[in-house]
Amino acid sequence: MGIDRRKFLKIAGVSAMLGISGKAGFELLAPGDVEASVKDIPLTTANKWGMVVDMHKMTDTVLEKCQNACHTIHNVPDWNNPRIEIKWNWSETYEHVFSEREHEYLDEHLLEKNIFVACNHCDNPPCCRVCPTRATFKRDDGIVVMDPHRCIGCRFCMAACPFGARSFNYGDPRKAPAEYNPDFPTNPDYPTRTKGVVEKCNFCAERLAKGQLPACVEAANMQEADTIIFGDLSDHSSNVRRALREHYTIRRKPELGTGPNIYYIV
Amino acid sequence: MFDGGKIWTLLLIFLALMLFPLWYQKGDAVPAPEPELTAAAKEAGKCVESKEFMTTQHMKMLDQWRMEVVRDGERYYTSTDGKTYDKSLQLTCMECHSNKSKFCDKCHEYAGVDPFCWDCHIAPKESE
């Protein structure tokens, strides 16, 4: 340390006058300290994370791999019961995903195609607006996350989400049938959830913080490069923006005005 | 007073029964538990902060950590001695204190507190 209160106030005052604050202020007090303390800490940041899914490359095997990767990493149990199933990402037929764009003469390949769906991390998320405890909220980097510590299980968010991206824990995930979850919890480094809370895709916020790509993106691109492109939508030169410039893309239910951030190349 | 003897006797018996937990336990108070440190924790010598601070403030610290990580995305804690730690119960705390039943539970049971951390967070597997 080596700096007393009086000296600190003096420097702070002078810095404020000169318009130096924040990191610059620290530099003045203890040169190099800030760099030293945050060095070697990988933290990937963006202003608005987004995803572009290339449906030409998205096959059923890739879809399965995406879901497996995600559900293994996040300890999502398999209840083997569609009524209480929990899903962070899953696949759905074209007519269900893009119901407003479906018509009877549509290309068969498209009609029969299973499409990758997950939370859209909307610009204007209705789930966050209805949450009475602010357990779900939008982060500065655009990710809509769940804080299960605060969730009271009212399920307003599930009613509000037009994409069905949220699942409710009707039972304790650790009591999910063992025959379908032989080695649950599959990832000892990530918490499970508990009975009575809602959960959903978090764009792998915990992986992004370590400088890793989301699990589904990693799994999909292992099969074929750029099946799912993930990056910063606010950056003009980013990979996602390039993909959006080069291809015609659609989003789910844009007419609702929620501003989904998963784009599909059809 | 009529039947004074009977009343007093019964009153004494009643009091003796009511205060049974007090006189029965007298003199042998349960000693405060000593949480056991793992070899890894002993070797490290020091937790993220001083022992006194951790004993009295760990619950507040964990609460603050969880708020900062989940809500603000601030994942790293710089301790007073300048070291940086991942703010994670499961990954940082339990890495050293991998003996939940002999470390966490011992005091929690004694104090009669039942934190719901482990409803979701996964405690490390303990051998034995």
Number of helices of chain A: 11
Oligomer: heterodimer
Using only C-alpha atoms, the radius of gyration of chain B works out to: 23 Å
- Measured as a percent range, the helix fraction of chain A is 25-40%
Low-confidence stretches of chain B: none
| Strand portion of chain B | under 5%
Description of the structure:
In chain A, helix 4 runs antiparallel to helix 10. The radius of gyration of chain A is 22 Å and the shape is globular. About 3% of the residues of chain A have low confidence. Chain A is an alpha+beta fold. Chain A has 11 helices and 10 strands. Helix content of chain B is 57%, strand content 5%. A two-stranded antiparallel ribbon of chain B has the order 1-2. In chain B, a hairpin with a 5-residue loop joins strand 1 and strand 2. The radius of gyration of chain B is 23 Å and the shape is elongated. Classes of the chains: A alpha+beta (266), B mainly alpha (128).
List the helices and strands and how they pair.
The complex is a heterodimer of chains A (266) and B (128).
Chain A: H1 5-18, H2 23-29, H3 33-38, E1 49-54, H4 60-73, E2 89-93, H5 94-97, H6 108-111, E3 114-118, H7 126-130, E4 136-138, E5 144-146, H8 156-160, E6 167-168, E7 198-199, H9 205-208, H10 215-223, E8 228-232, H11 239-246, E9 249-250, E10 262-265
Parallel strand pairs in A: 1-10
Antiparallel strand pairs in A: 1-8, 2-3, 4-5, 6-7, 9-10
Chain B: H1 4-18, H2 20-25, H3 39-44, H4 51-72, E1 76-78, E2 84-86, H5 89-96, H6 100-111, H7 117-120
Antiparallel strand pairs in B: 1-2
